[in-house]
Amino acid sequence: MCTPREMLERVTIARDNIIPITGECIEEVKEPVIGLNTSQLYDEGVDADGNHLTKYRNPTYAHIKNSMNPGPGFGRPDLYLTGEFQQNMNLRVEGDVFEIDSSDVKSAELKDKYGEKIFGLTQESKQEAWPIVRQPLVEKVAEIMQCNVG
Length: 150
What we know:
Low-confidence stretches: none
Structural class: mainly alpha
Radius of gyration: 20 Å
Largest sheet: 2 strands, antiparallel
Helix content: 55-70%
Strand order of the largest sheet: 1-2
């Protein structure tokens, strides 16, 4: 059983390390977090602010893309054609910020055309991400807080 002093020390350790601990947890569950970003693009054609991406200018291409994926609505980009862009998405954590990007060759062009906010989570996606991150976070904090009995 922990003494009150030992418990306070453990609480202080958890508090002082919560940002790097949270970063580790986000890294552990990066695939589902990236999946939330790709889903909001594919299903709705929205950026991290929840704004619809600029419609296609070419109506013929808009028809082709709509027949492939009507989810985002006619003329709305989903940034999916071959899947390479999404398959090359990655997540990097630095301090209290995490950044999603793609190493695909089209990434810079897509950012120029649709904005940097094609990467990142909408408020709704952040709410969906929290339970995914919370589980490993609770486990790590519980590990720090654990007192050896005996």
